[in-house]
Design brief:
By secondary structure, the protein is an alpha+beta fold. It contains 8 helices and 19 strands. The strands form 4 sheets. Strands 4-5-6-10-9-8-7 form a 7-stranded antiparallel β-sheet. The chain has a 7-stranded antiparallel β-sheet with strand order 13-14-15-19-18-17-16, sandwiched between helices.
Length: 345
Amino acid sequence: MSRKLLNTLSLLKLTGILLSVGLAIGCGQDGIKVYTVSKESAPPTEMSAVPEHAAPTSGTQLKWKTPDGWQEIPPGTMRVASFKVTGADGKQADVSVIPLPGSAGGDFSNVNRWRGQVGLAPVTEEEFAKLTQPVEIAGQPGALYEAVGDSGCILAAIQHREGTVWFFKMTGDGSLVTQVKPVFVEFLKSVQFVTGETMPVAVPEVVSNGKPNWSVPTGWQEVSGGQFLVAKFVITGTGGAQAGVNVSSSASDGGGLAANVNRWRKQLGLSELTGEELAKSVQSLGPVTLVEMVGQDARTSQPAALVGAMVSQAGQMWFYKLMGEAKVVAAQKTAFIQFVQGVKY
């Protein structure tokens, strides 16, 4: 493997898919934040705690105390909260809070996925049970998991609550994550879920749909992307064949190159790649990292193809996925690449 490719992979694999933590142990009383979880709208891109920007609303609301030294950053598309802290020696960690509907793949699968991200082997279900550490989240029991590997450390807490799985995850340098674990645990205790009453909720100071500027290719029809997508397009080819383009973003590196390539491969029923296999599967087109694959759509069991692109921009990772019937994907590949390369952030 060339040194240039190794450097590219290393940059894309910067540990992040959550909370950046400070070295302070206490929680600041004036760092209270509130977020409303709504199925009808996407999370705000930036929250403000200034009273004149607060508005009454109802629903399930998330409230927390920001620990001293934690730097809150815009949460991105899937996160409802995001933090970053740099240690005294320059080491960093990233913390995020992400709610997902249903079972979100199951705790066992998620823990093994996280272990893979830091270079650890998967565990059996029996071993998995022994890894669970009890933790308190918003006054209710949750499960805490810790994975320390050669490429970093992940400390993740999971709580299942009213049909939603809440992930509180800290990723970063192993020594820093271990050192600030008590801060993370105290943060979990400070979280509050408030349902069915009206209270001040932070709203964006700048209202935005989160979309960069782009030129949509001819024949792409934009449709609703739901809560977790920045945009979604449907493409219809000859004979009614179809493909779709999903656009999403995440703070930091969104979990890293390997995790996202293997996530896409799973959608096509393909096995995971590691090491040299992964390096050979990607190509660099300037700032764009591109990957192609052919398999079987896990949802429909029909043959399908996928072209995925990742772009790191201003502390965020942007994900573009063209997926569908192979003949449509092949016909739209050039337009898709030009679309991604032409985006203005």
